User: Fold this.
Amino acid sequence: MNEPVIVTVGFAAEPGGRGLAYAGIRIPGSHEESIVRVRFSCRARPALHGRDIAYAALNAVAQTLLERNIRALELRTADERIADDLAKRADLPAALTMPYVALRCSLNRFREATVGRDAAGASRDLAARARAEVCLGAAA
Assistant:
């Protein structure tokens, strides 16, 4: 398979940093999508407005896909800041340095890996699903 797998990611985390990501995986040439549920955790920092959570979620999804022997992917997320961070290699807040490096290291293990914005909005549906489950878990 030469074309990258399209992976749309939506995620949510409770204030303590325990989170859940849903990844919609579509193999090139296929109209079917499989959904993978991935748990992750991070040190959530409200001042980062969720960027730290986004890095942790995408890293957890990338690790899961590596374990499934996917070697080329295009990650799509509603958080365009992450795609910009990775494409432009801009200065980041110090608190994002390690999450950035961890995600970049995971992505470097793929033959091909890009991160872009989900213009179709599927990641928002997946994020709503993750938020609902995280909220239910927090309430339990």
